[in-house]
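Support request from a user on the community tier.

User writes: "When I paste my structure tokens into the form, the page sometimes reloads and wipes my input. The last time it worked, I copied everything first. Here is what I submitted, just in case something in the input itself triggers the reload:"
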């Protein structure tokens, strides 16, 4: 990030969040880049998510380039009709 980022109201990205978690809390992170949904999601990300939840059980942070608000993945389910993610959006606050 440029020097002007310090003190601004800009958000950090997934990469920067992983650096902060590792530096401040000694929590190493693994970033998995998936360009889009569909086949790549099924072949790469879903397998990684299954392994993560089986080993650690903790939520997973998800970012994006088109919908770049971070979200949390709380679970993954794979069945005969494909795979599904349980996603929480911390920015959603309901209707008024």
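"...and here is what came back when it finally went through:"
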């Amino acid at each position: 990030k440029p020097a002007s980022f310090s003190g601004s109201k800009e958000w950090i990205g997934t990469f920067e969040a992983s650096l902060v978690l590792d530096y401040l809390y000694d929590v190493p992170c693994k970033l998995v880049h998936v360009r889009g949904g569909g086949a790549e999601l099924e072949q790469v990300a879903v397998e990684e998510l299954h392994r993560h939840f089986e080993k650690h059980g903790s939520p997973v942070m998800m970012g994006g380039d088109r919908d770049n608000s971070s979200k949390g993945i709380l679970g993954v389910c794979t069945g005969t009709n494909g795979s599904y993610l349980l996603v929480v959006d911390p920015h959603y606050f309901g209707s008024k």
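Agent notes: The reload is a front-end session timeout and is unrelated to the input. The mean pLDDT is 85. Residues 36-96 form one domain. Escalated to web team.
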